[in-house]
Input
Amino acid sequence: MRALTAPRRRVGVLSLIVAAAAVGAAFGGAQAASAHDSLVSATPAADATVSTASDVELTFSANLLGADGGNEVIVVGPDARHYETDCTALAGPVLTTPVELGAAGEYQVTWRAVSSDGHPVSGTYAFTYAPDAGQPVSEGSETSPCASVAAQQDSTDATAPAPAPSGLVIGLSVGGLAIIVVGVVVVLLVRPRRKGDADDE
Ligand SMILES: [Cu+2]
Output
């Protein structure tokens, strides 16, 4: 009887350790996610219609990290051309990107920022540009005038056979793995315990 119980108990302890690790990982992930800075306000605001804009200003919930090239805002017009005129400047929680807008229509703002915990956060939103008559119409540019953004887009556009997985994909994979591990552990835990209960009583 002893010989049977010992290995079973060892499996139980092992399962508990794995379960604790998995739950810890899941919790850690959730905590890290909740600590990510979020976009608090934007000018022009999402879904707003503006008649003029000299820059796009995004304010986040905390001071961002000034990692090189990590904070980027691109502004793409209805003609799919870029209308930001320089790289994004960071001041505390605020990203400012100068723009010269072109034709009237919907402009897409795509941003990527380095959260105060060091992790990248990103998002996209649109605003409508409805300029008064006589406003200068910028021609925009085919690629971002910001070298680090343009370089990134080049590498994205290149026909790479296996594009590097994004942080989101990695996060989902890790999350999926944690769920699978927890599932396996639950099965392992439930099985021997039933037998064990029967034996003990
Ligand atoms: Cu994080």
Summary: The beta strands are 39-43, 49-50, 55-60, 72-76, 89-91, 94-98, 105-114, 120-129. Residues 166-201 form one domain. DSSP finds three helices and eight strands in the chain.
